[in-house]
Design goal:
Protein Binding, DinI Protein, Chain A, 2 strands
Length: about 200
């Protein structure tokens, strides 16, 4: 998502630069500028729309489904890790108690049990790392799928609309609400997703 944010920031910077240039350098007595006539009589129009991506993701059915699957997997991993951690802690407490009351017949036997518990603790740490890595990869895959889905739909959507730029509203400080196409895009995305699920 950081790469996407950088791309969106770069597009926003270019859009602002273009607006600045068009606004200040193209002004003359005929009122040329954005959407106005140039000196050569040609018409240029810069159409910009924006999307509130956070709102889009919260209401996009595909995003919600991926989030639900991710949450279930996260809960499963947390349960698996928690059970193993609790079992280890019980065994470690029992070992500590047995050592304190002199329950081991030999020092060697106590060392073997301690080494076994240390190995088990290392395995639990390794499991925690593996599960965290799996969740991070799953989240990255979900983000990529979501981005691909939205970007593919926006390309189709923009064939008719012919916007010069469609920006992420998170980067827009002030925007005309008439240029906010979030609801329209969301309806299209959900309709396309529902249709794909029925196939």
């Amino acid at each position: 998502m950081k790469n996407t944010s950088l791309v969106v920031s770069a597009v926003l910077f270019v859009a602002v630069a273009v607006l600045y240039v068009l606004h200040f350098s193209g002004r003359n007595s005929t009122g040329s500028g954005i959407g106005g006539a140039k000196d050569d009589g040609a018409s240029s129009e810069l159409k910009i729309a924006y999307i509130k991506v956070d709102s889009l993701v919260v209401n996009y059915d595909f995003a919600q489904e991926m989030h639900d699957v991710f949450t279930k997997q996260q809960e499963s991993f947390t349960k698996e890790y928690g059970e193993k951690r609790n079992r280890f802690e019980s065994q470690a407490a029992a070992f500590q108690e047995k050592v304190q009351r002199g329950g081991f017949l030999t020092q060697e036997r106590a060392m073997q049990e301690r080494d076994r518990l240390v190995g088990e603790e290392q395995q639990i740490g390794k499991l925690d790392q593996e599960l965290s890595t799996k969740l991070a990869q799953m989240q990255a895959d979900n983000n990529k799928q979501l981005l691909d889905s939205v970007m593919n739909y926006l390309k189709i959507y923009n064939k008719d609309k012919k916007y010069s730029y469609i920006l992420n509203a998170a980067e827009v400080l002030i925007g005309d609400e008439t240029q906010n196409v979030t609801k329209e895009v969301l309806v299209g995305l959900n309709a396309r997703y529902t249709k794909a699920k029925l196939k």
